[in-house]
C-alpha cells in the first residue's frame, strides 16, 4: 500500500522472524546471526513508525523515507519467505513422503550452497535497512500512542444546529422518518435513541439539522441540545457542553459529580431532544456513563446520534438505526447546478450542462461530492477545463481542490493498521464489482494481512471479522446475502474506491490488456482486465516484476489466438517470481506449465472456470501455497499424488469438478488443510487417509449425489466444525463415533443405518446449528436412543426434518413406491397390514422433542397414528413452518390449531385424515397446502369461526379426491389477503365459495362448468393471471377431437371462447395447457388481456404458443 501502512508490513516481517520453523532452520544452517541482527535493526525503526506515518501527510521528505523503508521491508519479507520455503521442504523430506519426481523437479540450490547465499542476501538487505534507520534522526521521530495520533489526524470542522434548507435536496423522506420516531413512537424507556448511519459526506448531519429545526420538533420538546462529539468522547467535556447549552451560560464547575448533579437539576422533568453529532466512540461503558446522567427525565426524551459506524449505532440505539441511502442523480445535479451555475458562476450553456451531468455521475449519490465538484467547476469557464475534470478520477484531483477525499479519509484514519492494509488492497477490484467475502479474505491471507492473535483461531474466521468491521464502518456496502442474512459479497461505493486508489498510490493498479504499460516498477498488486486475445496481457505487465498479486479478469470466450494461453503463463511464471496471489479464473488454458514451480512465494492460486485437464506433479513444490481454487474445472480428471506435499495448504476447492470421482490417498498428508470443498462433484468415496486431517474445519460434500460412504475413522477429524452432506442421497449411513466430533456445528443430514453404523444417541454430544435432517428412523430399535439424541437441548437448531422409510414396513417385495404407482386407493393403503410397531414409532417421535427455538419442522413417512405430544405452542412457541408428508396411518391432527405462530402449513399424503382442525384461526398463516387427504368438506370446523385465515396469501388444494363441499363461511371478509389459489384434481368438488376478492393468480384443473360458473358470478374480480389445464398429450387422436373433455384431464381450446365471453376485465395473462386447435374468433370483455398462450409439448420440449 502507500507509506501510511508501513507499520503493518513491518509487523508482518517481525512475526515471520519469530517463526519457530524459521529459527530452527536458521540455527542448523548458520544464518541465525544475520536473522538476529536484522530483527534488532527493525525494532529500532518500529517504535517510531506511528509518528512517521502521522507526519508524512504534511512532510514530503518523510514520505520519501517511508517509501524507501517499505521497499526494503518488502525485500526482507521476500527473503524470509525463501528461507521458510527451504525449511518446509527440508521438514517434508525428513518425513520422506515427498515424491522422488518432485525432488528432481525442484530447483532449490544445494544444501551446502544455500546457507551462504541466503546469509549474504540477508546481510545486504540489513545494511540497506541500517542506512535507512540512521536517517530517522534528522526527522526527530518520537514514540507515540496510536490513539493520540488518530485524534490529531481526524480533525473536522465543528458543526452546529443551523442550516440553510434551500441548499438541501432529496432528504425529505429521511427527515420525516426521524421526526416520526421523535414524536409518534411510544417508548417505555426513559430515553429513546436513534442513530443516523452512513458514509462520510452522505448528509447525516444535514438530516439531523433538518429535524432539529422543524417547528413540530421544537414544539414537542421543552429543551433542545446540540453537541458536536467527534473523536473525543470525553464524558466530562460532553456533560459540560450539555449544561452550557441548556443553561445558556458558561459552566465553571470542574468536578464530575457536581456537573452530573447540575445536569440532573437542569433536566428536571422536562422532555428534551439531544443531538450527538459525529460519534466515533465504540466503548459501551463510556456511553453508559453519559446515559446514566440523562435518564430520569420526562418520558419521551430522545437522542439523535449521527455516525459512520453501525457498531456505534448498535451500542447507543434503542431502535433500529436509520441508514442513509445515496441521493438520486437528479438531486445531485440540483446541488451541483446551484454551485457551478449560481450567481457569479459559469454561464449555463447546453454543452456545459451536458458535461456537468456526466461529472455528477462521479458523485455516486454523495451530496458532499456534488457540492464540492460544483464549487470546483464554478470558476472553470472553458469547455476544455470541464472536459478535463470529466475525464479525470476523483482521487487524481489536486489536493488543494479536493474536499471529497479528506472527508472520507477520516474513516480511514480511524482504522487499525491491519485494516488499513486490507482496505487499500481492495482498490485492485474494478469500481462497482461485487467481491466475494470468502475470496477477498483468502487474498488477504495470501498477502499476510490477516493475523491471528492466538493459535486457536482460524485465519478465515479472523478475515471475515475484518470484513464485518469494514462493513460496520461504512467502508464496505452489503452485497449478496444468504437466507440467514450472512453477507456473501461486498462492494465499495465509487467514492470509497477512489479513496482506496488514492491511498494505494502506484502500488496498486487496475490495468487493461488493451493499453500500453500501465503498471510501474513500484506496482505490487494489480488486476488485469482482458477483453481481447490472451496474448495482449503481457504488454501492460512488462515492468511489473515486483508484483505480489495478479488478479486476472476475463470472460469465458475463446479466440484462436487464445490457444497461446499456455505460452503466456510460461512468460508470467518466469518473470514474476515474487507472486503471492495468482487469480487465473476463466483464463483460456488447458494445462498448467511446469514453470509454476518457480513461484516459491505463491500462497493463493485460482484456476477456477478453466479448461485445465491435468495438474503437473510439480504442483507439490509450492510449499507456501495456502489456497488452491479449482472450482468449476469441469475437464479436470484427477488430482496428482503430490497434492499431499502442500504442507501449508489451508483451503482446497474442488466444487463442481464434474470429472473428479476420487481423491488420492496422499491428501491425508496435507495436515494443515482446514477447508475442503467437494460440493457438486461426482465423488463416490473418500480415502480413509482423510481421517488424518486433524486440522480440517470444513468439509463440504453438498449435492454429491453419488457419495455412498464417509471414511470409517471420520471420528478422528476432531477439529471439524462443518460437515455439509446435504442431498447426498446415496449415503447409506454415518460412520460410528460421530458423537466424538464435539466441535461440529453444521450437519444438515444424519443417516441411520444398520447395526455397525452410527447410533442416533451419538447426536446427543453434538451442539448443532441451523438445519438437521435425520433419515432412517425406522432403524431405531429402542425409544431410549431417541431420547439420548437430546434434541431438546439443541437451541441452535432452526430447522428439523424427521424421516422414516415406509419401504421398511410394507410386505416383502412390495415397495411403497410401487404401491402408489399401481393406483391403489388411499383407503386401501390405510387398511393394509403394515409391519410396523406403532407404539415404538410413536414413542421414538415423542422422544425427539426439539428445542423451543425451532422454526421449521418436517415429518416424513411417519408410520404412527397420532402426532407427538410436544407439537403444541407451549413447546414450540416460534414454529413458523410445519410439513407433514406421507404419514399414511396418521388419523388425527388435533393440536395444530394451537400453533399460532405458524406461517406455512403443508399437509401432504395423509390419506387417513378425514377431519381437519380449525387452522383458519391461525393468525399468521400465509401458505396452506393440502394434498391427498380424505376430507369431504372444508366447513366450520376448518374455519374455526368468523374472520378465518386473516393472513393467508397462498392456498393449494391437490388430489383431494373425496372433497365435495367448500362453503363460504359467514361473517367477516372471506380470505381477505389470498393472492394465489391452486385447485388441482378435486373431481367431486361441486362448488366454490362465492367470492375471492383478492386473488390475483389462479391455477385450476377442475370441471369446466364449475370454473365457468365461478367466473360468471364474479368470484375473481381482481384476477390477473389464469393458468388452466393439465393435459396428457399422449392421448391425442382424431376420434375425439370434437369432445370438450377427456376424462377430466384435458381442457380443449373449444373451452377458451366460453371463458373469453365472461366479463373478467382485470385479467392480463392467461396460460392454457391444452391440445393445439384453432380458436373461433369472437369478442371478449377482457379489456386488459395482454396474452393468451398455450403450453405444447413437442419433441420433448415445452413450447409457448400465442393464441391471441
UniProtKB/TrEMBL annotation:
The keyword Hydrolase is annotated on this UniProt entry: no
Residue ranges constituting the R13L1/DRL21-like LRR repeat region domain according to the UniProt record: 760-909
CDD domains found in the cross-reference section: RX-CC_like
Keyword Repeat in record: yes
Domain NB-ARC stretches: 172-341
Alphabetized UniProt keyword annotations: ATP-binding, Leucine-rich repeat, Nucleotide-binding, Plant defense, Repeat
Record-level GO BP terms: defense response to bacterium; innate immune response-activating signaling pathway; plant-type hypersensitive response
Domain Disease resistance protein winged helix positions: 428-500
Domain Disease resistance R13L4/SHOC-2-like LRR: 572-678
InterPro entries listed in its UniProt record: Apaf_helical, Leu-rich_rpt, LRR_dom_sf, LRR_R13L1-DRL21, LRR_R13L4/SHOC2-like, NB-ARC, P-loop_NTPase, RX-like_CC
Domain Disease resistance N-terminal: 10-97
GO terms assigned for molecular function: ADP binding; ATP binding
Record-linked Pfam families: LRR_14, LRR_R13L1-DRL21, NB-ARC, Rx_N, WHD_DRP
Family: Belongs to the disease resistance NB-LRR family.
Name used for this protein in its record: Disease resistance protein RGA1
UniProt source species: Elaeis guineensis var. tenera (Oil palm)
Gene behind the chain: LOC105035194
Amino acid at each position: 500500500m502507500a507509506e501510511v501502512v508501513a507499520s503493518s508490513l513491518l509487523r508482518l516481517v517481525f512475526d515471520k522472524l519469530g517463526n519457530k520453523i524459521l529459527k530452527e532452520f536458521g540455527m542448523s544452517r548458520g544464518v541465525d546471526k544475520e536473522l538476529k541482527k536484522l530483527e534488532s535493526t527493525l525494532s529500532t525503526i518500529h517504535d517510531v513508525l506511528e509518528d512517521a506515518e502521522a507526519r508524512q501527510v504534511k512532510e514530503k521528505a518523510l514520505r520519501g523515507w517511508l517509501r524507501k523503508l517499505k521497499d526494503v521491508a518488502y525485500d526482507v519479507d521476500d527473503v524470509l519467505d525463501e528461507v521458510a520455503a527451504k525449511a518446509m521442504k527440508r521438514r517434508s523430506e525428513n518425513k520422506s513422503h515427498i515424491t522422488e519426481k518432485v525432488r528432481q523437479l525442484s530447483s532449490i540450490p544445494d544444501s551446502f550452497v544455500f546457507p551462504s547465499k541466503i546469509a549474504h542476501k540477508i546481510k545486504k538487505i540489513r545494511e540497506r535497512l541500517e542506512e535507512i534507520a540512521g536517517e530517522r534522526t534528522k526527522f526527530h521521530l518520537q514514540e507515540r500512542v496510536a490513539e493520540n495520533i488518530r485524534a490529531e489526524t481526524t480533525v473536522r470542522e465543528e458543526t452546529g444546529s443551523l442550516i440553510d434548507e434551500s441548499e438541501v435536496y432529496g432528504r425529505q423522506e429521511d427527515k420525516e422518518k426521524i421526526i416520526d420516531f421523535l414524536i409518534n413512537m411510544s417508548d417505555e424507556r426513559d430515553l429513546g435513541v436513534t442513530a443516523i448511519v452512513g458514509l462520510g459526506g452522505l448528509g447525516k448531519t444535514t438530516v439531523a439539522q433538518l429535524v432539529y429545526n422543524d417547528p413540530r420538533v421544537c414544539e414537542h420538546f421543552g429543551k433542545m441540545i446540540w453537541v458536536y462529539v467527534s473523536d473525543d468522547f470525553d464524558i466530562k467535556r460532553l456533560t459540560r457542553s450539555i449544561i452550557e447549552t441548556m443553561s445558556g451560560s458558561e459552566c465553571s464547575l470542574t468536578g464530575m459529580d457536581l456537573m452530573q448533579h447540575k445536569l440532573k437539576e437542569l433536566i428536571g422533568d422536562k422532555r428534551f431532544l439531544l443531538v450527538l453529532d459525529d460519534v466515533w466512540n465504540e466503548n459501551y461503558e463510556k456511553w453508559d456513563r453519559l446515559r446514566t446522567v440523562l435518564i430520569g427525565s420526562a418520558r419521551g426524551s430522545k437522542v439523535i446520534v449521527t455516525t459512520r459506524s453501525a457498531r456505534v449505532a448498535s451500542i447507543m440505539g434503542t431502535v433500529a438505526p436509520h441508514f442513509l441511502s445515496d441521493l438520486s442523480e437528479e438531486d445531485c445535479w440540483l446541488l451541483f447546478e446551484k454551485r457551478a451555475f449560481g450567481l457569479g458562476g459559469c454561464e449555463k450553456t447546453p454543452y456545459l450542462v451536458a458535461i456537468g451531468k456526466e461529472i455528477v455521475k462521479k458523485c455516486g449519490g454523495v451530496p458532499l461530492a456534488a457540492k464540492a465538484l460544483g464549487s470546483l467547476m464554478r470558476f472553470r469557464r472553458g469547455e476544455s477545463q470541464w472536459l478535463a475534470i470529466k475525464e479525470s478520477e476523483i482521487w487524481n484531483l489536486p489536493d488543494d481542490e479536493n474536499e471529497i477525499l479528506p472527508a472520507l479519509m477520516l474513516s480511514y484514519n480511524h482504522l487499525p493498521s491491519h485494516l488499513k492494509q486490507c482496505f487499500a488492497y481492495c482498490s485492485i477490484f474494478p469500481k462497482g464489482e461485487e467481491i466475494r467475502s470468502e475470496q477477498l479474505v483468502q487474498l488477504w491471507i495470501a498477502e499476510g494481512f490477516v493475523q491471528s492473535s492466538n493459535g486457536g483461531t482460524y485465519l478465515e474466521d479472523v478475515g471475515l471479522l475484518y470484513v464485518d468491521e469494514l462493513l460496520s464502518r461504512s467502508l464496505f456496502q452489503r452485497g449478496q446475502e444468504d437466507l440467514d442474512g450472512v453477507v456473501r459479497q461486498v462492494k465499495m461505493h465509487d467514492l470509497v474506491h477512489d479513496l482506496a486508489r488514492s491511498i494505494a498510490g502506484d502500488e496498486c493498479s487496475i490495468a487493461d490488456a488493451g493499453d500500453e504499460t500501465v503498471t510501474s516498477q513500484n506496482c505490487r498488486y494489480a488486476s488485469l482486465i482482458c477483453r481481447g486475445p490472451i496474448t495482449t496481457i503481457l504488454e501492460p505487465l512488462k515492468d511489473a516484476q515486483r508484483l505480489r498479486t495478479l488478479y486476472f479478469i476475463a470472460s469465458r470466450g475463446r479466440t484462436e489466438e487464445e490457444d497461446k494461453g499456455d505460452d503466456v503463463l510460461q512468460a508470467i511464471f518466469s518473470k514474476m517470481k515474487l507472486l503471492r496471489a495468482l487469480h487465473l479464473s476463466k483464463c483460456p488454458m488447458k494445462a498448467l506449465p511446469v514453470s509454476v514451480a518457480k513461484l516459491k512465494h505463491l500462497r493463493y492460486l485460482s484456476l477456477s472456470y478453466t479448461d485445465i485437464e491435468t495438474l503437473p506433479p510439480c504442483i507439490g513444490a509450492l510449499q507456501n501455497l495456502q489456497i488452491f481454487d479449482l472450482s468449476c474445472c469441469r475437464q479436470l480428471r484427477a488430482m496428482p499424488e503430490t497434492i499431499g506435499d502442500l504442507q501449508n495448504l489451508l483451503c482446497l476447492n474442488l466444487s463442481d469438478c464434474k470429472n473428479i470421482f476420487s481423491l488420492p490417498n496422499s491428501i491425508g498428508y496435507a495436515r494443515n488443510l482446514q477447508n475442503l470443498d467437494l460440493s457438486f462433484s461426482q465423488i463416490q468415496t473418500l480415502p480413509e487417509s482423510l481421517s488424518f486431517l486433524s486440522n480440517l474445519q470444513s468439509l463440504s460434500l453438498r449435492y454429491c449425489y453419488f457419495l455412498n460412504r464417509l471414511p470409517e475413522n471420520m471420528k478422528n477429524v476432531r477439529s471439524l466444525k462443518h460437515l455439509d452432506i446435504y442431498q447426498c442421497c446415496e449415503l447409506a449411513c454415518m460412520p460410528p463415533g460421530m458423537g466424538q466430533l464435539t466441535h461440529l456445528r453444521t450437519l444438515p443430514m444424519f443417516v441411520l443405518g444398520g447395526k455397525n453404523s452410527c447410533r442416533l444417541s451419538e447426536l446427543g454430544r453434538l451442539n448443532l446449528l441451523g438445519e438437521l435432517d435425520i433419515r432412517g428412523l425406522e432403524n431405531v430399535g429402542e425409544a431410549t436412543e431417541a431420547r439420548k439424541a437430546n434434541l431438546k437441548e439443541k437451541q441452535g437448531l432452526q430447522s428439523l426434518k424427521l424421516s422414516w422409510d415406509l419401504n421398511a414396513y410394507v410386505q416383502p417385495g412390495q415397495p411403497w413406491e410401487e404401491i402408489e404407482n399401481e393406483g391403489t386407493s388411499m383407503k386401501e393403503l390405510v387398511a393394509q397390514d403394515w409391519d410396523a410397531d406403532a407404539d415404538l414409532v410413536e414413542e421414538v417421535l415423542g422422544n425427539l422433542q426439539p428445542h423451543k427455538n425451532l422454526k421449521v419442522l418436517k415429518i416424513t413417512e411417519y408410520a404412527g397414528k397420532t402426532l407427538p405430544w410436544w407439537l403444541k405452542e407451549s413447546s414450540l412457541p416460534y414454529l413458523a413452518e410445519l410439513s407433514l408428508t406421507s404419514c399414511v396411518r396418521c388419523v388425527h391432527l388435533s393440536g395444530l390449531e394451537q400453533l399460532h405462530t405458524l406461517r406455512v402449513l403443508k399437509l401432504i399424503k395423509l390419506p387417513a385424515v378425514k377431519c381437519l382442525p380449525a387452522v383458519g384461526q391461525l393468525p399468521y398463516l400465509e401458505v396452506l397446502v393440502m394434498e391427498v387427504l380424505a376430507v369431504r368438506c372444508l366447513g366450520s370446523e376448518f374455519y374455526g369461526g368468523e374472520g378465518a385465515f386473516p393472513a393467508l396469501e397462498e392456498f393449494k388444494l391437490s388430489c383431494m379426491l373425496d372433497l365435495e363441499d367448500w362453503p363460504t363461511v359467514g361473517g367477516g371478509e372471506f380470505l381477505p389477503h389470498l393472492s394465489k389459489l391452486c385447485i388441482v384434481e378435486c373431481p367431486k368438488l361441486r362448488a366454490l365459495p362465492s367470492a375471492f376478492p383478492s386473488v390475483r393468480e389462479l391455477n385450476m384443473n377442475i370441471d369446466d362448468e364449475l370454473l365457468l360458473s365461478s367466473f360468471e358470478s364474479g368470484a375473481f374480480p381482481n384476477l390477473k393471471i389464469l393458468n388452466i389445464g393439465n393435459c396428457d398429450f399422449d392421448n391425442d387422436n382424431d376420434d375425439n377431437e370434437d369432445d370438450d373433455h377427456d376424462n377430466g384431464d384435458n381442457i380443449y381450446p373449444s373451452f377458451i371462447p366460453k371463458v373469453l365471453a365472461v366479463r373478467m376485465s382485470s385479467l392480463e395473462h392467461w396460460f392454457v395447457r391444452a391440445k393445439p386447435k384453432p380458436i373461433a374468433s369472437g369478442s371478449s370483455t377482457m379489456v386488459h388481456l395482454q396474452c393468451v398462450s398455450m403450453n405444447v409439448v413437442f419433441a420433448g420440449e415445452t413450447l409457448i404458443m400465442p393464441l391471441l
